[in-house]
Amino acid sequence: MASDFDLYRTSEEHEMLRDSVRALAEAKIAPHAAEVDEESRFPQEALDALVANDLHAVHVPEAYGGAGADALATVIVIEEIARVCGSSSLIPAVNKLGSLPVMLSASEELKKRYLSPLAKGDAMFSYCLSEPDAGSDAGGMKTKAVRDGDHWVLNGVKRWITGAGVSDYYTVMAVTDPDKRTKGISAFVVEKGDEGVSFGAPEKKLGIKGSPTREVYLDNVRIPADRMIGAEGTGFATAMKTLDHTRITIAAQALGLAQGALDYAKGYVTERKQFGKPIGDFQGVQFMLADMAMKLEAARQLTYAAAARSERVHEGGDGAKEDLTFFGAAAKCYASDAAMEITTDAVQLLGGYGYTRDYPVERMMRDAKITQIYEGTNQVQRIVMARNLP
């Protein structure tokens, strides 16, 4: 074996990005995280800090005024924000989720119209796929779009929409040909200010309380025909391609939550004394920490490998497209399961203190739970993986 054989590692640029985002998150976002959770309010301080540092939508290409960050850089940004505040990490994550269909399938004119304001921080983007009766079975949606001259008229209800009411733009999937099922679904950009758009009351959630989740009501919303994303009938395919890429951002959020919980637990066990010595000296505690760190590192390597495939597919690289679906699902599934286990163990290590809101690990545990559910439950991820075995 060559003596200069290097270990797998992220680039120097990626690690510099991590250091800068971590410093920003600890200085500008962490101080407000508990309050944001307690008051169930939008983390405006986080948005302001992220926009000021061009970290709110790093995935937007330079051609539209964005940072042009690669998929791994986007993962690192989300991961480091989630390490201190799960709710705030959804700002860059959902901006990518909402706008990626535009990046993947929209006309050049539509890209310029909507990606440029997003890049500047003048707007946020949400993704409207799920409905009251169409969750895991997204193809069963009932929201309809009917052509009327040079316009489309949309009617329906979208549920579980992250950022609803705060975001200015919404990628909406709607049925344009009921006889074709998934091939009769099209994608549109709907604006918050369009007549007929309204929002339900914020959901009262277990975690990520700072990120608003609401229903979006579309009541005879009339939009110009040029706001269709891609060709008619391609919306569902675009939605699935989007999720292949963005499930990796949920894995990133899970990594950050797990890392934050592990970091806090490591510090706690060195200070907390029982039976005359730090509890971190006890083998049972050491084994728990070892398992937590092992699961986290395995999840991180899988997530970064998935991010690399996402970037190769985005660049048109051969051989990556076939296994991106598997790796995206695997990263999201494994990292979120690991995050739930790690944050729960962190609460256990803090004992009674971990169960109180005076310490951040119970919030991290509550926030971690949703990563096993949204952008496809982990049961669905296992179906996806089984159908796309490498």
Radius of gyration: 21 Å
- Largest sheet strand order: 1-4-5-8
Average pLDDT over all residues: 96
Question: What spatial form do the alpha-carbon principal axes imply?
Answer: globular
Q: Give the percentage of residues in beta strands.
A: 5-15%
Report the strand count. 10
What class, by secondary structure content? alpha+beta
Major β-sheet annotation: 4 strands, mixed
User: Which ranges are low-confidence, i.e. pLDDT below 50, for 5 or more consecutive residues?
Assistant: none
Cα distance spanning the termini:
28 Å
Helix-strand sequence: HHHHHEEEEEEEEHEEHHHH
Instruction: Indicate the percent of residues in helices.
Output: 40-55%
Q: How large is the count of helical segments?
A: 10
Description:
The structure is a single chain. The protein is an alpha+beta fold and 390 residues long. It is 52% helix and 14% strand. It has ten helices and ten strands. The strands form three sheets. A four-stranded mixed beta sheet has the order 1-4-5-8. α3 crosses α6. It is globular, with a radius of gyration of 21 Å. The protein starts with 11 loop residues before the first helix and ends with a helix. The model has no long low-confidence stretch (mean pLDDT 96).
